[in-house]
Amino acid sequence: MGYGLAAIGPAIGVGIVVGKTIEGVARQPELAGRLQVLMWIGIAFTEALAFIGIATYFIFQ
C-alpha cells in the first residue's frame, strides 16, 4: 500500500514530462530530437522518485 501511494507522484510527473514534450514538438518540430533527449532525462529523474519510494518501503518495513 505504501509503495502504491509513493508511485502516484512519479506517474503524474512522467505524464507531465511527456505531455509537455509533445506540446513542444507540436510548436517547434525542428527541435524534436533535442526535446526527446530532454524528455528521457526528465523521465529518468522522475523515476528516481519511484526508486526512493521502494527503498523507503524496505527501510521502514
UniProtKB/TrEMBL annotation:
Main location: membrane
Topology relative to the membrane: Multi-pass membrane protein
Keyword Transcription among record annotations: no
Residues marked Reversibly protonated during proton transport (site): 47
SUPFAM superfamilies named in the record: F1F0 ATP synthase subunit C (SSF81333)
Subcellular localization: Cell membrane; Membrane
Domain of life: Bacteria
Limits of the V-ATPase proteolipid subunit C-like domain: 3-59
One Pfam family of this chain: ATP-synt_C
Key words, A-Z: ATP synthesis, Cell membrane, CF(0), Hydrogen ion transport, Ion transport, Lipid-binding, Membrane, Transmembrane, Transmembrane helix, Transport
InterPro entries from the UniProt entry: ATP_synth_csu_bac/chlpt, ATP_synth_F0_csu, ATP_synth_F0_csu_DDCD_BS, ATP_synth_F0_csu_sf, ATPase_proteolipid_c-like_dom, F/V-ATP_Csub_sf
Listed name of the protein: ATP synthase subunit c
Source organism per UniProt: Microbacterium pullorum
Lineage, broadest ranks: Bacteria, Bacillati, Actinomycetota, Actinomycetes, Micrococcales
